[in-house]
Specification:
The protein is of the alpha/beta class and 322 residues long. The protein has two domains: 38 residues, no CATH class; 281 residues, P-loop containing nucleotide triphosphate hydrolases (Rossmann fold, 3-Layer(aba) Sandwich). Helix content is 36%, strand content 20%. It has eleven helices and eleven strands. The strands form two sheets. Strands 1, 2, 5, 6, 7, 8, 9, 10 and 11 form a nine-stranded mixed sheet that branches. Strand 5 and strand 6 form a beta hairpin. The protein starts with 27 loop residues before the first helix and ends with a helix. The model has no long low-confidence stretch (mean pLDDT 86). The structure holds adenosine-5'-diphosphate. Adenosine-5'-diphosphate binds next to helix 3, strand 9, strand 11 and helix 9.
């Protein structure tokens, strides 16, 4: 997977493809030719299709394995516990689509109709669409390169028939890859609409190696003008289900202050900590509804606090924009 150069000037910049940072980037020639600068007709298609979605929440992480898909799925489940709200979860983690398993719909088929691809419904108000539904074999994705991935993401964003949604949670691949550029370009590229928001939530673990990559992710968001509504620290301590003793398996560095310290440094809200809970891991593997099965667990309680932060931040954002 190709990654964005650290000092990428951005595809829309006059100097795209021409700066020293562009040397060696696989997109250099297309950026230098200016072809990436013109409006992509796909942007309009995506905007039209997603005009019925109120809040688009991109879930990002610097590294793989920090719990991004777990958090995305919990958020989709949690938001849909309000039966008045319609929620969708879109999994565009091309190289590791795990949402179908976590949501308990592994092996389901998606159908195409005149109005687009129909997502798979887990509940009446909770729809799932994953790149995993379309892969012949999980190994297929490995051979996909930039333009093909870009086309697939465009199709995903413009051809899924979600109907009216209050929230669309988008599980992205880790890091700052081609897919991120594509998805942000399509979601943010259209005309301003004060009644629709696109935001990001960043998931990390407390370790410094994870935080290092989160910084790159936050710099990326700044570069593409994607508002980050908060940082979530996952695998933050372990509360023994039997004796309730809390151990810090990955203690945050006292120098950086872990994810909370980093969020402060960047001026981004810290949404909270989600502890390690082996029962959460098991629920993800079996596709069970953790929040419904263990509502009083420390992880479920912490999650609800985090979700409230997400919801109130979205509500505030709407108020400010209006
Ligand atoms: P990512 O999407 O960032 O690659 P996943 O959500 O797939 O990460 O999580 C990686 C693994 O860690 C999965 O097996 C998942 O079940 C487990 N996991 C994630 N968060 C927790 C947690 N808080 N407690 C226990 N296991 C977790």
């Amino acid at each position: 997977m190709t990654s964005v150069p650290e000092h990428c000037p951005g595809t829309q910049s006059e100097t795209a493809g021409k700066e020293s940072a562009c040397q060696g980037c696989p997109n250099q020639s297309i950026c230098a030719s200016g072809a990436a600068r013109g409006p992509d007709p796909g942007i309009l298609l995506v905007q039209q299709r997603l005009s019925s979605v109120k809040h688009k929440i991109l879930i990002l992480s610097g590294k793989g394995g920090v719990g991004k898909s777990t958090f995305s799925s919990l958020l989709a489940r949690g938001l849909s516990s309000d039966s008045e709200k319609n929620v969708g979860i879109l999994d565009i983690d091309i190289c590791g689509p795990s949402v179908p398993r976590i949501m308990g719909v592994l092996g389901e088929q998606v159908h195409q109709s005149g109005s687009g691809w129909s997502p798979v419904y887990v509940e009446e108000n909770l729809a799932v669409m994953s790149i995993g539904f379309l892969l012949g074999s999980p190994d297929d994705a490995v051979i996909w390169r930039g333009p093909k991935k870009n086309g697939l993401i465009k199709q995903f964003l413009s051809e899924v028939d979600w109907g009216n949604l209050d929230y669309l949670v988008i599980d992205t691949p880790p890091g700052t890859s081609d897919e991120h550029l594509s998805v942000t370009q399509y979601l943010l590229g259209g005309s301003e609409d004060k009644h629709r928001t696109v935001v990001a939530v960043v998931v990390t673990t407390p370790q410094e190696v994870a935080l290092l990559d989160v910084r790159k992710e936050l710099d990326f968001c700044k570069k593409v003008n994607l508002p980050v509504i908060g940082v979530v620290e996952n695998m933050s301590g372990f509360i023994c289900p039997k004796c309730k003793f809390q151990s810090d398996i990955f203690p945050p560095s006292t120098v950086s202050g872990g994810a909370e310290g980093m969020a402060k440094e960047y001026g981004i809200p810290f949404l909270g900590r989600l502890p390690l809970d082996p029962r959460l891991g098991q629920s993800c593997d079996s596709g069970a509804h953790f929040l419904a099965e263990l509502p009083d667990s420390p992880a479920a309680k912490s999650f609800h606090h985090i979700m409230q932060g997400v919801v109130s931040s979205l509500d505030t954002k709407m108020d400010v924009d209006e």
